[in-house]
Amino acid sequence: MENDKLYAIRHSLAHIMASAIQRIYGADKIKFGVGPVVENGFYYDIDMGDEKISPENFTKIEKEMRKIIAENQDFVRSEKTIDEAIEWAKSANQPYKVELLNDLKREGITVAKDLNADELGTITDGDAKVEKVSFYTNGDFTDLCRGPHVANTSEIPADAFKLARVAGAYWRGDEKNPMMTRIYGLAFASKQELEDFLAMQEEAKKRDHRKLGKELDLFCMSPLIGAGLPMFTPRGMIVRDAINDLVQGYRLRANYQKVWTPNIALLETYKTSGHFEKFPELMRFNSSESGDELALKPVSCPHHAQIYVSQPRSYRELPVKYLETATVYRDERKGELGGLSRVRAITQDDSHVFCTDEQVGDVFAELIESARELYKLLNMDLSLRLSFRDDGDGYIGDEKLWEKAQNSIREMADKFGMKYEIGMGEAAMYGPKMDFMARDAMGREWQLATVQLDYAQPERFALTYTDENGQEKRPVMVHCALVGSLERFMSIYIEHTAGKFPVWCAPEQLRVIKVKDDSEAVNALCDKIKTLANEHGVRVAIDDSNNSVGKKIRSAEMMKVPYSVVVGDKEAENGLLPLRIRNDLLADDTSDRAYKPEQLIQSIANEARGRVSKSSL
Fold first, then answer.
1. What are the domain boundaries of the chain?
2. Which of 330, 488, 511, 539 is labelled catalytic?
3. Which end of the chain has fewer CB atoms within 10 angstroms, the N or the C?
4. 355 an active-site residue?
5. CA-to-CA distance for 285 and 227, rounded, in angstroms?
6. Which is the catalytic residue, given 97, 240, 352, 552?
7. Phi and psi of 312, rounded to 5°?
8. Is 311 a known active-site residue?
9. One of 479, 514, 560, 580 is an active-site residue; which one?
10. What would be the CATH architecture of the domain defined by 503-610?
11. What pLDDT, on a 0 to 100 scale, did the predictor assign at position 286?
């Protein structure tokens, strides 16, 4: 089914759901907000008054929706002047529609861009005011809407949709406004596609990083510390450090130099850079006893610019490359915080390059190749998005320099033979980006690695270098992150692997399951394994608890430990360790193998250093 047709089906189902709810609960009790199409389905924001809708009501609503579909209702488009539409909304006792229509009458396109355009009638481009709006009617339900819709409800597969969940949502996203009931629905082209999606959702629940983070003892939250401020346990820090070492290793190989910058700075720093002007709501600052206005660091690029400008620079030094694993701080609404996906303390694998125009291509080439290698190792497919500016006002810098930067990025993507899409309005405030979109094991796409070209901040901070003719020139600034936020990346990687980390970043690489007895030979063998592991940098844990061997084996499996061995009198006698290998690591179907301790530990160490995804044992 074509995407346009599926869009029309989903949009029509939003109206059908609203119509069904109106039938069930009564038109006099229901006040409608907006009901747009979203990824995989639709939603509608509804003011239910004293009525409450919960998932227990979904079956009844779905039944009524299918009844409406079976009635073969036409979707009939009509138009009204803006004043007629306002009178209609008043007579229908729909105050939220009245508000939307009055705002459209006053501000036109500005309001239409800020809200969901599907719900705002017919808008004439270039005309600030709206003269006419469109409506769609199916059966006895009429709604302000631009469309599109199917011609008749018979075009909608009645077995390919399902109401999914209910949530609270402030009207127009403003906490000062009433809280509405938002009902989400899923809709697909066929019953099979719906079932496949639901199966994937169930798998996603099993892989939820918040669930696995607790089960595998990787990180925790505390209401005393605050929302969006995760704390990593010893096991979680092993994973975090292994990922950071991997990522920064690519830069060290390309002659980047480590720097460190403080977590606070004068607020003036971010006024100069432009960040405060564009994102004041993300910053928190206080006056110190000295009278200085200090802000928690929201980005590290101004700091790196100050390291660059701390001494005179010659063209012979360029490119100057800095890297820092930097924690920055951005305030977020509590409702938007969740697990590691969105946090207030964000640790970035940050790097900045200061170079000449002629060197930009080489800098990008290095970073592109690093991104390709990294995500191949992580078993995540990459696609490319060129993120350019739109006509909005959320950008800084000269428009001619923007055009130059965007042309440069497009030329580099073409030079490397990379297929890409262009994301208008997705640029950073100071320059266009090359964003790498990584696809995980669930088929979901994430924007992770990014390379950004910046002519604006070198201008704002008056960065210079002396060229071969002794003239002062302005360098170009290239921003790059290979995984972005370590916290967010870990949330994605935990779910990508389902917590079954490869050996190189597994918190525990080998577990020794000790048969509980007082045999000196068994104790000696366990001590030998631990000593060898420490010598070769292998992370090993010895389970000498009072649990049965069966329970110990199940514990190792639950913690997703790559390798485990049972050590008892037999193993102590023959000196061979029967190895249990986690299923996803098996290169073939054979796992009944026994190894001498030296051989086993050396092999695990080699596998970890090689960062391989399958067992070599």
1. 3-202, 214-261+298-497, 503-610
2. 330
3. N
4. no
5. 19
6. 352
7. -60, 145
8. no
9. 479
10. 3-Layer(aba) Sandwich (3.40)
11. 63
